[in-house]
Amino acid sequence: MESHLWKNLDKLKDAVRGKKILLFGPPGSGKGNRSRDLEALGLIHVSSGIALRAKVKEDQESELSKNASSYMERGELVPDEIIVPIIMDHLSQEKCQKNGFVLDGFPRTKAQAEALFSKIKIDLALYLDVPRKFLVFGIIEGKRRVCVECATGYSDFDPPHIEGVCDKCGGRLERRADDQVETIENRLKLYDKQTKPFLPYIKTQTTLEILPITVSDKEEIIKKHLKTLKNHVYWVETDEGGKARMLNLEGMRERLYNLLGKRFQ
Ligand code: ADP
Ligand code: ZN
């Protein structure tokens, strides 16, 4: 039986205030949705993708913008010299220092990680562990759609109450132009090659906790917290070759809040 300390949301908010949390995981592992959950506790969301797009929009004619866009359009990583100062600028803002933050999409290279840890003490890194099978399947077969206003992600496994409309903010839901099998596989390859290898380094710099999306056979869990497809509990093939059930948006929020409650209370 998991603890339900977090059911006292105000207590959990107090406990995580000012904390600096890093989200780590492959594309499609739910970093966006976990960021929303952490934002709901009062942390400031800093996303490298959003920060980059904002920077480019600010002055489209600048050398920096043109240079960054060319990488982003190809789905390649923007050079460290560009992204590092942008993110460090964000993180040094008073609101991030005061409220704490959740950093999503950064670091993605060892050099970025070194730049970050040399300046800021991170309280916790969370690794979002999602079976490989689901990363592509969930996005493609589940028809991932994202809120244009608040970036909450939905799919046929986690459908919104009203199709096309965000449960959270009423914003319009859209498919992402780069959610194609080939692009996703490319983004996954990039992750395997450039990002995943420095996970052991992260462990030397902060506490790394794994947040699995799967539910073990032994665990008792209510259906309301499970991913279903057409009303049936969905079973995924795990990386080890077994089968497992998976948590949905609500189930993952519960698991995340439990973990934070245990760690910080
Ligand atoms: P995705 O998770 O699909 O890659 P993002 O919105 O996080 O989408 O990022 C969009 C693009 O911005 C990436 O394809 C990449 O070009 C660039 N980018 C984002 N974060 C970083 C980073 N930490 N280092 C280098 N480039 C980045
Ligand atoms: Zn929304």
Describe the structure.
By secondary structure, the protein is an alpha/beta fold. Helices cover 44% and strands 17% of the residues. The chain contains eleven helices and 13 strands. Strands 2-3-1-4-8 form a five-stranded parallel beta sheet, with helices on both faces. α3 crosses α4 (63-74) and α5 (80-92) packs parallel to α7. Bound molecules: adenosine-5'-diphosphate (ADP) and zinc ion (ZN).
Identify the notable features of this structure and list them briefly:
11 helices, binds adenosine-5'-diphosphate, 44% helix, 265 residues, alpha/beta, binds zinc ion, three-stranded antiparallel β-sheet
Set out the fold topology.
Layout: H1 9-16, E1 20-24, H2 31-39, E2 44-47, H3 48-58, H4 63-74, H5 80-92, H6 94-99, E3 101-104, H7 110-119, E4 124-129, H8 132-140, E5 145-147, E6 153-154, E7 173-174, H9 181-195, H10 199-205, E8 208-212, E9 214-215, E10 228-229, E11 232-233, E12 235-237, E13 243-246, H11 249-264
Parallel strand pairs: 1-3, 1-4, 2-3, 4-8
Antiparallel strand pairs: 5-6, 5-7, 9-13, 10-11, 12-13
Q: What's the helical proportion of residues?
A: 40-55%
| Cα Rg | 18 Å
> Order of helices and strands, N to C?
HEHEHHHHEHEHEEEHHEEEEEEH
- Our measurement of the CA-to-CA distance between the termini, rounded to an integer number of angstroms, reads 18 Å
* Backbone shape: globular
Mean pLDDT: 92
Strand order of the largest sheet: 2-3-1-4-8
Q: Give the strand content.
A: 15-25%
Could you describe the largest sheet, including whether it forms a barrel? 5 strands, parallel
- Which hetero ligands occur in this complex? adenosine-5'-diphosphate, zinc ion
Q: Helix segment count?
A: 11
Low-confidence stretches: none
